[in-house]
Amino acid sequence: MKKHSRKGTFAEERPYSFAIHRRAAIFFAFCAAAFTLLYLRVGALSQWQGLAQAAQQQGKYTLTISETRGGIYDCNMEPLVNNVSETVSAVLPSAENLVPVLEAVPVGRRTEVSKQLQNGKPFLLKGLSPIEAPGVENFTVLERSADRQLAAHIVGYTGDGGSGVTGIEKSWDSYLSSETAKQQIVYTLDGLGHSIAGIEPEIREEHVSGAGVVLTIDETIQKIVENAGSAGLDKGAIVVMDPDTGEIKASASLPSYTQSTLAECIQDEENTPMINRAFLSYSVGSTFKVVTAAAALEAGLSITETYDCQGYINVGGQIFRCHNLAGHGEVDMVDAMMKSCNPYFIQLGLKVGGEKLLEMTERFGFGDRITLSDGMTVSGGSLPSREELQNPAAVGNLSFGQGKLMASPVQICRMMAVAANGGMLVTPRLVLGTTPDGETLDLTADTPPVRILSEDIAAQLQSFLIHCVMVEEGQNALPSNNTAGGKTATAQTGRYDEEGEEYEHGWFSGFFPAVNPRYVITVLAEDSGFGNGTAAPVFAEIVEEMTKLGY
Questions:
Q1: Alpha-helical segments (H) within 333-479
Q2: H/E/C letters for each residue in 136-200?
Q3: CA dist 211 → 203, 319, 325, 440 (Å)
């Protein structure tokens, strides 16, 4: 048998061994290159900011605790909104807070909250007391308005989306929205949406400035007015004005509405609580005798000239009756104003003439629409035309505030301010300006008063009105702790109830104190009858309460 040598065997296998090594080397080199590229790619990705931010965002869960619109302030920088607080609890579900959270929730809401707890994602609970439990953060946040919002018809309200629907909320919606302050809580969660141990939630607050709109309304006077109105009026309006500046210090419309019954109030066609009666026009009645007296005095008619009131006056075949059917007898201008004698003022208006009486009426601002803010306009009411006043009966109607004449409580306040401030016609004002911080005021331009009567005539009117309150009995307008002047009215409406009785509006408009008046107040008692029995007592109560507080 032939033996094979080692040398021969080695020589036969060597080519095969070199081939294996060559392929292995190539494969190793390829793998090394691939891993090198992968390493470099991972390193690059780890440094890429966009991916880092994306990863971070995927791990964040944000809840908005509150979004608070810019403020609405009174003239003393007291907030009229954002002044009621509630608790909002942010809950990160866990086994530790399951029971405390369910215990804090009313039974009727527990099914809903249980589902949120099972979901595992953070959620908010509102309208509860603070919940003391692990994973629960409690916040005190501001509600936009109270259920019974002060000056509701002026402030207005917001809709479900947070935008203004009425009042200042609507008029200044763009500005108030731009000053929204937001509060958020941000959780860091893992890929399954669970909290990561050791990482506390982040609290974010944006744009907390206190900026807002500043009104002429005085919060304290507004409260007095609303309390007196709620007690003394079923339907009507009250306006308080500074006679020197035209600033509206309070404005109330009765009945009012509440946030909790908003839907029902909107549908209430009988009581119409959503209407701002202070801005609407009504039959005026005898408060207008101030204008007739002004026209007569300017025409040179004497206050001592008398007229014998027999309880009626015949004007071109039309009979106008006095409220005192027996007549007042012989009265002069002071007596006629005190006793509110219709025949006296009718004959006075006829002496002045329709043209001059209408000119004085327009000079007092009757018929003018008054814009208080964008979209907030006071009705201009209505006046008889010059053609209509060619008829003596139309002049007679206008002379004691009847016929085609209609005006708003704001306008009657403006009229009374002329007598109170010495003959100057003011422009009613509701907005003082804005504030960047809730402390400082950026004033908006105002309209200066215009003289429409001489000081002597204004002083004479003021004297008449003081006699009406402080001398004439049965007016029920004299406050127990101050002096005042003013005029009642009982205005016919031309509308009748089921028994055939005519609806009449009761008015009182006046000023206080009697010397150097600081405030003018107009009270309208809608469809309520005689002004001395309905509106005048409300005036007296408001003056008494304001006087107690040093106004």
A1: 333-339, 342-352, 354-363, 392-399, 409-421, 455-470
A2: EEEEEEEECCCCCCCCHHHHCCECCCCCECCHHHHHCHHHHHHCCEEEEEEEEECCCCCECCCCC
A3: 22, 60, 59, 9
DSSP state of 48: -
pLDDT digits (tens, 9 = 90+) for 292-321: 999 999 999 999 989 999 999 999 999 999
Secondary structure of residue 210 in the 3-state scheme: coil
Q: Judging by beta carbons within 10 Å of its beta carbon (0-12, 13-18, 19+), is residue 362 exposed, middle or buried?
A: middle
Tokens at 420, concatenated = 């109170």
Q: Which residues does residue 320 pair with via DSSP β-bridges, in sequence order?
A: 313
Where along the chain do its domains lie? 59-213, 219-548
The amino acid that residue 336 corresponds to is: A
Matching CATH number, 59-213, of 3.90.550, 3.90.1310, 3.30.750, 1.10.8:
3.90.1310
pLDDT in tens, 171-217: 999 999 999 989 999 999 887 777 776 788 999 987 778 999 999 99
Confidence of residue 54 (pLDDT cuts 50, 70, 90): very low
In whole angstroms, give the CA distance from residue 253 to residue 276: 6
> Cα-atom radius of gyration of the chain, to the nearest Å?
39
The pTM for the full model equals 0.85
Query: Tokens at residue 232, please?
Result: 């003394």
- Indicate the Cα dihedral angle 515, 521, 524, 530, nearest 10°: -20
For 274, residues 6+ apart whose C-beta sits below 8 A from its C-beta are 166, 257, 265, 266, 268
In whole angstroms, give the CA distance from residue 74 to residue 247.
12
User: Are 72 and 108 a contacting pair, CB within 8 Å?
Assistant: no
Q: 6 pLDDT exceeds 50?
A: no
86 φ/ψ sector (left φ>0, alpha ψ -120 to 50, else beta): beta
Residue 431's nearest CA partner among 371, 369, 378 is: 371
* Of residues 507, 256, 254, 274, the one with CA closest to residue 405: 507
Angle (deg, nearest 10), helices 342-352 and 392-399:
120
CATH number for region 219-548: 3.40.710.10
Please report which confidence band the pLDDT of residue 32 belongs to, taking 50, 70 and 90 as the band edges: low
- Sign of the Cα torsion 58, 60, 61, 67 reads negative
59-213 and 219-548 share one fold: no
Which are the contacts of 250, defined by CB distance < 8 A and separation ≥ 6?
151, 217, 218, 221, 222, 224, 225, 238, 239, 240
What are 547's two structure tokens?
């006087």
For residue 241, give every residue at least 6 positions away whose Cβ sits within 8 Å of its Cβ, in sequence order, or none: 247, 248, 249, 410, 413, 414, 417, 426, 428, 519, 520, 521, 522
Asked whether 341 and 347 are in contact (CB, 8 A), the reply is: no
